[in-house]
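Notes from the pairing session

We agreed to fold both candidates in a single pass and log them together. This is the raw record for the first candidate, unedited. Please don't reformat it; downstream parsing expects exactly this layout.

Candidate A
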Amino acid sequence: MKYLATIQLQKCLAPLPQSICLAEPNVISGVMGSKRRDLSALREPFHREYANCTLDRKAILMFTRQYGLLDWEGQFAGRTDLAGLKFTFHVEEWREHRANFLSAWATTSRNQKGLNWSIVPDTFPMPSTRSAWMVFDHNSLIVKGPKTLWTLTEKGPVARVYAQTSWEYLWMLLCFEQREKLRSCENPKCAAPYFIARRKDQRFCGEDCAHLIAASRWWTQHGKEWRRRRASRKAKR
């Protein structure tokens, strides 16, 4: 196979809120600030942090405070003068969008090998906007795509893809990920089950879960015999 171009996903500087709170029991609102966070420089990949965020209101509020507004509607797409602008979103909306993301994660992980371009775009929720840099008509909506800049080099064309929002960046991360690396921990009680595998045979998110399940399986298979022998030794004393 001959590759005609190189595609590179560029870092995303997510705008952070200056203030944020639970305005109502199921509504989160706040004011945008001037600070930004580089989502490509996190200790754990941003799409893993999002996939494993718990769904209670305080966790969603904390996630938004730490990583910024996802902005799935593209309200602030491409803008730089955000300080002082207000935002509001419903907790249930956040949960629904996360459920769609996890559904795509599970779908791509079941289709082994290759990148996710052939699967994810079918359900890629591009932000809707009327001030799009690149648009196409889809069911009478104007839909915004990621900004792409092309450069001609000696090795061939290079496309640099810039996500306009954190929400778009999440999906682009999923698109650029190898399918076989997107996995779910086999520990049914794992608190953060979604992970990006480092090895082909990796079945657990980390050593803690691997050891816990190994111990549990050993006790299931050998626990009864071990307790019988232990009771027998005590009886002989």
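Candidate B (folded immediately after A)
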Amino acid sequence: MTGQKYQFDHQQLKRKPIYSRWWFWLIVGFVAVIAIAGVTGGNSTNNSLSKSDTATAGSSVSADAKATDDPNEDDGWRLGDFTLDNVQFGLSVDGRVTNEQDVERTGSFTLTFFQNDHVVATTNGFANQVEGSSTVTVQSFSTDKLASTANLIVAFQSISDEGACSSGWCWLGSG
């Protein structure tokens, strides 16, 4: 067999078009699924809590708290009704907060949500230049999401700055 030459036929190597290969369609399907999931938010369920999951500030979080402590009140601010909504990137809370003092104040608020003695979400929001004895709607946000509001308890905390506003700017912690 020495000296025998083999000829290579380039026509035998003619490749199939890419769209006729099985792995091409696998990749197209995978990309389509990812694109659809991105457009729809990743799942087909409704992210909003139901209307029955609208909550009001409730009982004290600590079992040792005095009966005179109002869990809806902190440092002259009072939390009223609020609504919860699971949005694309976490939890959104719209709450009514009242400045119970007679002076204009700015406040930063933290709502900590407990379920079965565990912290399940914490939201933060603020109100700027709230007139004395007036109520405002405060939006607070978190990256946490709630699965349900069953047995939900909220703790309301505030940090406020009384009368430290000048030229339309209010800074927390300024004196």
